[in-house]
Design brief:
Helix 4 (90-113) crosses helix 5. Helices cover 80% and strands 0% of the residues. The protein starts with a helix and ends with a helix. The protein is built from 11 helices and no strands. The protein is an all-alpha fold. It is elongated.
Amino acid sequence: MDALIMAALGAMIAVGLLATMFTLMGVRLFAGFGSGFVRAQQNAQTLLIWTFGAFVAAAVVWAWTSWPVGGLWAFAGVLSIPLLRGDSYSASDEIEKVEAIATWTEQIRDTMNASAGLQQSLVATASNGPAVIRPELDAFARRAPRGDLAGALRQLGIDLRHPAADLVIAGLLSATELDAGRLVPLLTRLASSIRDEAKMRVRIEVSRARVRTSMKIVGFFVGLTMLLMVVVGRDLLIGYQSAAGQIWLLVVGSVVVLAIWTTRKLAEIPQPERFVARRSQS
């Protein structure tokens, strides 16, 4: 028993010494844990509110129409509103991230043009990088001075989680392992290519905005028509009172859900395979 107590005390002292050493080296332990916990709590509260609203809507529809399948679709429809609305910001976030990667690439190029070394340029630009990718660059700036620049770059590629960043990381890794003499022209071409990708995404989103507006208008009037039919024209929906009618209502709702899902899948821009992350994990 005494041996176990002594071992536990020794482990606690060792953890304290390691934490002190990492703190003196500038490593932030448990960085982002507090903000992540708060964000998870907020998401849980939002989900709880929407779930309660979905139950209320399902109960109202079921009580008014005596359709169990109608209550099911009301519950699913209300609960899907935050999911559909939340994905609308992913396109703008993606464009901002692509532009941030291009800006960071240009910063590295300009810093190296000022006769700075590769590692010094990377650390300097990480401290003043774009705000969108600042957390990943800050973590890289803390890892880079420890000697393993290639390992820090590979970890940065994993943290950024984007194919455009993989191109830049691959060029920087080649410079660290081979020759950095031609890195500046390479970074110039990469930055230009990534900028073109951002412009392409902006043009795509502008063209899709009109389609989304049309879909919202059509969806609004379809929903309004269904509501009026349920409230005013219940005689037209008497066929759905039977078991066969409920089955057909389930089929119709499934077709609508499938149409919405396929439309959203077609709107996604496919991403190429992440070769830097695959190489790091192999």
